Amino acid sequence: MASRNSLQVPSSSSSVPPHLAALAAFADPPIRHVDGAMMDYFLIETVNILRESSKVALNREREREKEMVEAGLIPPPAPPVKDIKDPLASARDSTGSLTLTKAGKAAATGPVDDEEEELKLRLETIGIHVGSNFSERLCRDRGLFTETLDAIKFICKDIWAACWDKQVDNLRTNHRGVYVLQDNSFKTISRLSSWQGRPDAVRKAKVYVSMPAGIIKGALARLGYNATVSPEITNLPQCTFQVKLPKGS
């Protein structure tokens, strides 16, 4: 990034109030370097901790709902509806170059796990907070974006380089508020694997990309765009993010 103007703090020999020196350091903190693999280790531990936390929170909610049903405060929940898929529709599903076995296909198209959805939601929430802070810091010396495409390019270049050390490999749009950002070797899932095979690795990767999706969403929210970000993975380590902006953005 280009050099930016910083608030100069006079030397300690001059009579500068301590609170002004602390305020200047807080406004423009020094850059600290960390190990490049730290984010990978951090995300692994974050997913494991949030998975257990989500499980506890979901069990607590189910127990509370059960007590309210027994007390007659709320009606009992409706029985789950079996998902009957059209065999012709299943045959038309695109799987890219990924060859699914029967076990893998069951894992990929099985019922949605409530605990996993709660985990994805928590990871996305963390990502929104991180992305908004990144966007605010990187845009501090920039003017407002006048075009939506400029904001998307900012995500593809600046945010991507700051978070994942590269730029997006491909950007497509239908010029109606839908943008597709493709990374052919997404750093977050580039070293992800599973002893149960590639279908299981793809299923796990969909959890790990929830935080990057939140980073994109949070960065756009700080720029004034209320976007919907949907990550898609068909063939590791490639990842595609579909960004939908409301009409009139």
TrEMBL record:
SUPFAM superfamilies: Ligand-binding domain in the NO signalling and Golgi transport. It comes from the Eukaryota. GO terms for cellular component: cis-Golgi network; trans-Golgi network; TRAPP complex. Gene3D superfamilies: Trafficking protein particle complex subunit 3. CDD domains: TRAPPC6A_Trs33 (cd14944). One of its GO terms (biological process) is endoplasmic reticulum to Golgi vesicle-mediated transport. It holds the Pfam family TRAPP. InterPro entries: NO_sig/Golgi_transp_ligand-bd, TRAPP_component, TRAPPC6/Trs33. Belongs to the TRAPP small subunits family. BET3 subfamily. This is TRAPP complex subunit trs33. It comes from Lentinula detonsa.
